[in-house]
Amino acid sequence: MTTPRSKYRHVYWHKWAKKWAVRLHVRGHSSGHDYLDIGYYEDEATAGWVADIATEALVGPNQERNFPKSNSASLNVARLRILLYLTDRKFITESQLDEILTHQYKNALQSPPTT
Fold first, then answer.
1. pLDDT at position 90
2. Which of 18, 54, 55, 59 gives the lowest tally of CB atoms within 10 Å of its CB?
3. Helices in the chain by DSSP H: which ranges?
4. 106 CB contacts (<8 Å, ≥6 apart)?
5. Percent of the chain at pLDDT above 70?
6. Do residues 2 and 15 make contact, with C-beta atoms less than 8 angstroms apart?
7. 75 to 17, 25, 67, 71: CA distances (angstroms)
8. Do the Cβ atoms of 36 and 26 come closer than 8 Å?
């Protein structure tokens, strides 16, 4: 059996876990590695979406995305959970989290969320 290839950036099939994994290449990160393993997901699309959020938080908002950016309320809750996870794992600092959330809320005030 051949290893599945993901159609999403930063997502690959982890053959031992038998799940889709998210790995970001971030040069000079405080972890001391040039890559960060974010997590494992049953669903390829979920992994792609997590990769988008993690890339935005760790690299910046102007990176190529797997999915169009959305301002829906349910996605904002999921986005917040991922950002808190990244903070808890020390992939981003609390000050970086504050900066991301300030930017996100500023944009949310300018365009109301869709449902």
1. 83
2. 18
3. 44-58, 73-88, 94-110
4. none
5. 79
6. no
7. 26, 24, 12, 7
8. yes
Amino acid letter, residue 71: N
Residue 1 binned pLDDT confidence (cut-offs 50, 70, 90): low
Q: Which amino acid belongs to residue 101?
A: L
Q: Which two tokens stand for residue 26?
A: 């971030």
- Rounded to whole angstroms, the Cα distance separating 20 from 44 reads 6
Residue 56 burial (CB count, 10 A): 20
Look up the pTM and report it.
0.73
- Mapped onto helix, strand or coil, the DSSP state of residue 41 is strand
Number of other residues whose CB lies within 10 A of the CB of residue 10:
22
Predicted confidence (pLDDT) per residue in 47-94, tens digit: 999 999 888 888 887 889 998 887 666 677 777 888 888 888 888 888
- Grouping H, G, I as helix, E, B as strand and the rest as coil, residue 31 is coil
At residue 40, φ and ψ (nearest 5 deg) are -120, 145
